[in-house]
Amino acid sequence: MFCIAIANQKGGVGKTTSAINVATALAASGHRVLLIDLDPQGNASTGLGIAQAQRERSTYDVLLDDAGLAEASVPSGIPQLDVIPATVDLSGAEIELVETSDRTHRLRRAIDRADRSWDVVLIDCPPSLGLLTINAMVAADALLVPLQCEFFALEGLSQLLNTVERIRSRFNPSLSILGVALTMYDRRNRLTEQVSADVRAVLGKVVFDTVIPRNVRLSEAPSHGLPALIYDHRCSGSEAYIALARELIQRLPREENVAA
């Protein structure tokens, strides 16, 4: 069971959109996927059509040791894709856990206790470096970093890389960066091309070849409770996420790469 945290300290970079659509593409390719919604806003849950009535158990219960992964997971309606939804209660978890000695390892422990019902676990992190994101990084084998093609993205990337080094040194020495995905790519914008070139010059092959374009269908899909891959599988955004998933699969450990 390979665990990938989808993280960026900066908001609005397409993190949740990437989580939803990469999870869908991996499930479609034959992987058994669990998406853990670790953002109190619960956008990944909503984007996969998980109604509030279905959120009897949530990531809050998992972190507080009130439920295991199997108990808290619900089917998404997409074959082979399950979700552990988020509720607003999750926003209080950081305060409730602050005095516990194992507060950074709650999610890791829950994953270690779970049976191998899934091949890949994806964690949609909140857009901040708080206790929730730290839990995700401690639990993860690797990070998928969506990076918006704009000037300030480079500064945010530097901060994230520093954070990864601190997590490695203190909590999770095996944490790696699976890849950086360039999002909201606009070929008409010269700055987009410059940011892309700069990121590739610094990180090289860590950056995925596939770029995710600005695409209105990607923005529309969550309001229908559907991944873009189902809402409009022919749009440029869906095609890009399918290509990104193919690249990602090639970077998975062989035993998890069931589609290879």
UniProtKB/TrEMBL annotation:
Stretches that traverse the bilayer? none
Task: Report the protein name in the record.
Answer: AAA family ATPase
Source species of the chain: Sphingomonas citri
Q: What is the lineage of its organism?
A: Bacteria, Pseudomonadati, Pseudomonadota, Alphaproteobacteria, Sphingomonadales
Span of domain AAA: 3-177
Which Pfam families does the UniProt entry name for this protein?
Answer: AAA_31
